[in-house]
Amino acid sequence: MSWKKEVDRIERQRREALELGGAEAVAKQHDRGRMTVRERAQALGDPGTFQEQGPIAGYAEVDDDGNLQQFTAANYILGILKVDGRPCVVGGEDFTQRGGSPTPAGLRKSVYAETLAVQYKLPLVRFLEGGGGSVAGSSGPSGKKRAAPSGDPVFATPRFASFGEAMATAPVASAAVGAVAGFPAARLVASHFSVMTRNTAQVMVAGPAVVERALGERKSKDELGGPSVHLYNGVVDNLAEDEADACDQLRRFLSYLPTNVWQHAPIVDIGDDPERTEEELLAIVPRDRRRAYDARRMLELIVDRDSLFEMTRYYGPSQVTAFARMGGRPVGVWANDNRYYAGAMSADGAQKVRRFIDLCDTFHLPIISFIDEPGFMLGTEAEQAGTIRYGTAAIFAAMQSRVPWASVLVRKAYGVAAAAHFGPNAYVISWPSAESGALPVEGGVAVAFRRDIAAASDPDARRAELEEMFFKAKSPFPRAESFGVHDLIDPRTTRPVLNRWLETVGPLLDEQLGPKAYSIRP
Question: For residue 150, what pLDDT is reported?
Answer without folding.
Answer: 66
